[in-house]
DNA sequence: CGCAGAATTGATACATCTCAAGCTGGGTGG
DNA sequence: CCACCCAGCTTGAGATGTATCAATTCTGCG
């Protein structure tokens, strides 16, 4: 395999791009110093597996840059993505040794890692961390429940539109803007990974993308870059309440 | 509406049936006294709505007895259940005022409630509570991810078998036994609620139940009581790894 | 007894899957 | 430098699992 060199900067916590949103968001200067002492970075390139389901995982981590997926696989090969980790999201469960899912870097990825034991120790002694972790976990549970509605009840077209809206929103969030009007972004997933996310086949994903394109809801630049002329039109295709999400 | 009287006992924390598994599981005697001071019970009968999505909710609670569902509804009426709360499960998010989902008592239900503000205060000052809440939330996230695999990738028959296995396991847990060999339990949901849980129509639920019955995997006593002659045979129908779940 | 809600069963429609054949673009070796 | 190659993607035709629409049949209860 060709070995591209990944050259993400190794930032100090003080100017870390996820400083204000990650698990360390509420830490004071002295707490941050403690974290700084036990942290280290890992980089992966697009497509690499971070850990296999069942393997032991000796660290937990924050996603600094890039996107990682959590995927479950059945014996006969059916796959379902169950988590999509974007910058500032937290990976791993401090109290658990074995990874329950495959973790895959779907784009080039930088993790800020902490060995499990010292991190568990900090959780026990630093309310700012455990409180933030609880908050983030509750947010993730909310997201999982939205996702369940998508998987259980939405049509293929609604699934695709919802996925595009989610990515557009998270992308805007990272850029410190709001998704509205004309919007453009890069897909962090292949068609196959999108299918695993949405509980569809990759052919159906492809067909529905083409259909949204034909109907002028989106246009493509290459396979990965998406342009949405009017974000509200995309939202109309998601099946969600027209208000609901805007303020949330 | 007829008004049956619900007569659940109002227990002291000391002999509460969920004492060792609920959010208060790790509390010391003095912490328990603090909780005891702010707790109160609410009872609901099967079918009653506890809160509507969007309503403000001035309490959080532990399920003491019975079963409650969290359900999301789309504008056009499509419904997806996104949470099923059994005894010891926690309801509500301390930091959130408005309920994001409909909460419905699917059986007669007893809640042990705490007003939000004092409870939030206890979370901030009592690590035993916030740690336990984090642990429970992470468990719920795991369950949500299993559920996502079910919704996205399993067949109707596998969905039904998986649901029955989940209920049998949770039921056994409450009875302090292990689900294996011959197993019997009551369904806490109507066919329609099962359909909302599984992302199916009620007709498909009914057909698949009949099919499992025809094949001798289960038998029915009335509409609600299920008998499973051999739990392993049921597990074979779930599509899950044959090992995986037994020890988990 | 008869009603109403819950569940079952049947016939048909349709969305998505499956299998199969091309297309496309970027990288590589001749 | 060009032709080839291959992974990722698109498109097509047909199969199939589940939804939909429509009767019945249970079951508990007033």
Protein architecture, described:
The structure is a homodimer. Chain A is an alpha+beta fold and about 250 residues long. The first copy, chain A, has two domains: about 15-130, Jelly Rolls (Sandwich), CATH 2.60.120.10; about 145-235, Arc Repressor Mutant, subunit A (Orthogonal Bundle), CATH 1.10.10. Helices cover about 40% and strands about 20% of the residues of chain A. Chain A is globular. The model of chain A has no long low-confidence stretch (mean pLDDT about 95). The interface of A and B includes residues 93, 124, 135 and 141 of A. Chain B binds a DNA duplex (30 and 30 nucleotides) through α6.
| The CATH superfamily title of the largest domain in chain A | Jelly Rolls
Report the CATH topology name of the largest domain in chain A.
Answer: Jelly Rolls
Classification by helices and strands of chain A: alpha+beta
How far apart the termini of chain A lie comes to: 43 Å
Greatest chain-chain contact: A-B, 39 and 39 residues
Helix content of chain A: 25-40%
The strand line-up of the biggest sheet of chain A is 1-8-3-6
Overall 3D form of chain A: globular
Number of helices of chain A: 7
Order of helices and strands of chain A: HEEEEEEEEHHHEHHEEH
- Binned strand content of chain A: 15-25%
Tell me the number of structural domains of chain A. Answer: 2
CATH class of the largest domain in chain A: Mainly Beta
Calculate the mean pLDDT score of chain A and round it: 93
- The protein's oligomeric status is homodimer
- Tell me the CATH architecture of the largest domain in chain A: Sandwich
């Amino acid at each position: 395999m060709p070995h591209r060199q990944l050259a993400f900067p190794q930032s100090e916590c003080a100017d870390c791009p996820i400083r204000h949103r990650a698990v360390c968001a509420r830490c004071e200067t002295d707490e941050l110093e403690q974290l700084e002492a036990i942290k280290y970075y890992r980089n992966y390139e697009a497509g690499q597996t971070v850990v296999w389901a069942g393997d032991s995982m000796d660290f937990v981590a924050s996603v600094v840059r890039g996107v990682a997926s959590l995927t479950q696989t059945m014996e006969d090969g059916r796959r379902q993505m169950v988590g999509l980790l974007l910058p500032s999201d937290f990976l791993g469960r401090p109290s658990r040794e074995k990874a329950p899912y495959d973790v895959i870097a779907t784009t080039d990825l930088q993790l800020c890692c902490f060995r499990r034991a010292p991190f568990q120790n900090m959780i026990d002694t630093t309310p700012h961390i455990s409180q933030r972790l609880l908050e983030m976990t509750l947010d993730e549970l909310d997201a999982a429940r939205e996702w369940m509605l998508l998987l259980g009840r939405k049509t293929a077209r609604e699934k695709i539109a919802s996925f595009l809206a989610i990515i557009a929103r998270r992308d805007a969030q990272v850029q410190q803007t709001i998704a509205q009007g004309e919007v453009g972004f890069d897909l962090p997933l292949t068609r196959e990974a999108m299918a695993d996310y949405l509980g569809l086949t990759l052919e159906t994903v492809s067909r529905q993308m083409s259909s949204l394109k034909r109907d002028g809801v989106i246009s493509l630049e290459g396979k990965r870059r998406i342009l949405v002329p009017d974000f509200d039109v995309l939202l109309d295709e998601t099946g969600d309440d027209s208000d609901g999400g805007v303020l949330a």
